[in-house]
Amino acid sequence: ALNYRGEDVAAQINVNLIGVSNSVDAVLPGMRLRRRGHLVVISSLASYRGLPRMAGYCASKAGVSSLFEALRIELKPEGIITTTICPGWIRTPLTENIKVPQPYMMEVDYAVGRMVEAIRAGKPHVAFPARGAWRVRLLRFLPATWSDWLVRRYMRKLTRK
Description:
single chain, 161 residues, mainly alpha, Rossmann fold, three-stranded parallel β-sheet, globular
């Protein structure tokens, strides 16, 4: 993999996954005492599939999504709900410096509106924008050789723009 470094992957997992787990650890006891609560996490469309030059990020966000999937099932009987939010690219100062293709870029206001809607509705999961979400979800159900071919082709197309 291009410039792959295990220590970078570990750092992303530490921030994105372990950080989320530590945060849940801090608030869950109080929610359990009250027998109610709402845990919300920001994952990513990148959690659905490994993408070139984003191995650590994809792995960490897949871990976040799986963690909340398990918590959703486990905590519901205790009156605690979860919402996993999987946005695509959001235009921020951070994304300006990322050197990978960023299709379907969204403005912050749009993304926040979608997040607030999902949280207020108590949705267990939301992924957006729709045109990016259905594509990455579909890739999970295709044979690996087809999925890999489509990702390579798409990434080449994006880098030519």
